[in-house]
Specification:
mainly beta, Jelly Rolls, Immunoglobulin-like, eight-stranded antiparallel beta sheet, 2 helices, ConA-like_dom_sf, DUF2341, DUF2341 domain-containing protein, Ig-like_fold
């Protein structure tokens, strides 16, 4: 397809001006505005003749300015090879009428341009590329000596007084020729351009032209219809400069600008650094896997540290890329037993395609897999004497346990408070259930067991939601748990008392 755009300015002989075309966004709104590309303040008519084969009927040929409409005569065909895209062949018709036109649509100051490709410009003799009035706004006639006569005058119609302002030799058969003329009432000057280059010019009578309403026809006139194809027929209300005419010719010849390589929608590369991942305990980092899509390159690096701000981690520049499905230590920046993990992803485009990172996964396990070697002991209930009844929720204390040598240290203690009828003993495993403490917030993020107490005491009265009743027997069970979540494997330390 062919898209016409209006560019505010391109400097003469510039080698740095650029025009960017953005494409490929199917969600973009339609921004076509022919009247903005070909404004009525500057253009009288613009005919591309790009209609489909078989176009016929009144007003069926489009003027991009919207000022006029073209009605093709019988024999005019469309869909023929043009200088730009497809165009109309006028050989077997009597032109395209665009209606009766006068001022202000047609002006004394003007630029008229079109492409011609003649079958035989000399037979029949004196063919008309367009016609309005040879004694008024103007008419052109192709002479058999290869020149074109441009007639205009002060009569207003097809009668004298008028003058013929003739071009240099330019016509030939079977070739596309770009014809441009300009007329400027300031100084009464006219100019001929052939294929974008100035050819000849002069001055004309100051009484010319007299513009009155006459039928305007493209491809026919007062003598004979044109035999051949016409493309890009334009009439403007202003005199264009020689640079403008040259640029228009070069543009139509597709030699005005070079087309560079397509640029991606996104920058050529980008880097993402993840948040710091904290499993809450020292870990052995086992496997890094990720999936990608699209063309381009995805580079993944990883590093670890024992500080949450990664202040001791290796700089990314010193880390190597990690292949998906491999040990992250292969990148040189991941150390087992470090607690904090971070990854970096760099995406690099391939032409217009941008890769995407769809998923990333890191597998790990606690560096310390050994349960604590010493459980809590000497469990006591404060401020309560044996065999006494009490109506308080007491505080339990115990002597600290210990983790294994070289372990990560104790996190705290799994606690269960079991309620049973008197004389019906029943103990719970605090690694599995918390009994009456189930659902109560322990303030600890680890889920190694249902309820964890840190330190060496637990004040039951401080627990929101705990309710103890009279006539029940309560069992307090405790197991040490380390930071990775390993739990003492021996029997729970127990304390039994009647509490009400």
């Amino acid at each position: 397809s062919y898209v016409w755009v209006r560019v505010p300015q391109v400097n003469l002989e510039s080698t740095t001006d650029s025009i960017y075309m953005y494409y490929g966004n199917i969600a973009a709104t339609d921004a076509q505005a022919p009247s903005s590309v070909w404004p009525a303040s500057e253009y009288s008519m613009v005919y591309h003749f790009g209609e489909v084969t078989g176009t016929s009927g009144a007003n069926s040929v489009e003027d991009s300015t919207g000022n006029t409409f073209g009605t093709p005569s019988s024999g005019i065909t469309f869909g023929n090879a043009g200088q730009i895209g497809t165009t109309a062949d006028f050989s077997n018709g009597t032109g395209i009428s665009v209606g009766s036109l006068a001022s202000p649509l047609l002006t004394a100051e003007t630029t008229i341009s079109f492409w011609l490709n003649a079958v035989n410009f000399a037979s029949p003799a004196r063919q008309n590329p367009f016609d309005h009035s040879y004694g008024g706004w103007g008419t052109m006639t192709i002479e058999t000596n290869t020149r074109i006569s441009w007639f205009f005058g002060s009569h207003g119609g097809n009668s004298s007084p008028y003058v013929n302002y003739t071009s240099q030799n330019l016509m030939s058969n079977g070739n596309w020729i770009y014809v441009t003329v300009t007329r400027q009432p300031v100084g009464y000057a006219y100019k001929w351009y052939i294929n974008g280059a100035y050819s000849s010019g002069g001055t004309y009578n100051s009484a010319y032209p007299n513009i009155v309403s006459q039928n305007f026809t493209i491809g026919d006139g007062y003598v004979n219809p044109f035999e051949g194809r016409i493309d890009e027929f334009r009439v403007q209300k202003v005199q264009r400069s020689a640079a403008w005419v040259a640029a228009s010719y070069s543009s139509d010849m597709d030699s005005f600008a070079s087309v560079g390589a397509a640029e991606g929608k996104y920058t050529t590369s980008g880097t993402l650094v993840s948040n710091v991942f904290n499993p809450t305990y020292p870990a052995d980092w086992q496997l890094l896997s990720y999936t990608t899509a699209g063309s381009g390159t995805v580079t993944v690096k990883a590093r670890t540290d024992n500080s949450s701000d990664m202040s001791g981690a290796t700089d990314w520049a010193s880390c190597s890329a990690i292949t998906s499905g491999s040990d992250p230590a292969t990148g040189g920046c991941v150390t087992d037993t470090d607690q904090y993990f971070q990854y970096q992803v760099t995406l690099a485009t391939s032409g217009l395609d941008t890769p995407t990172l769809q998923e990333i996964d890191v597998q790990y396990e606690a560096s310390d897999l050994i349960a604590p070697t010493t459980n809590a002991s000497n469990v006591q209930m404060t401020a309560v004497a044996d065999a006494d009844w009490t109506n308080t929720e007491p505080t339990f204390t115990w002597t600290a346990g210990a983790d294994n040598a070289g372990g990560s240290g104790l996190l705290g203690y799994c606690i269960a408070l079991d309620e049973a009828d008197i004389a019906s003993p029943n103990t719970l495993d605090p690694a599995i259930t918390a009994g009456k403490l189930t659902g109560i917030d322990d303030g600890v993020s680890s889920v190694a067991c249902p309820f964890i107490a840190t330190g060496t005491s637990l004040d039951l009265s401080s627990l929101t939601g705990l309710s103890l009743v009279t006539g029940k027997q309560y069992y307090f069970s405790i197991k040490a748990v380390d930071i990775p979540g390993n739990i003492w494997t021996g029997p729970a330390g127990q304390f039994q008392e009647l509490i009400s």
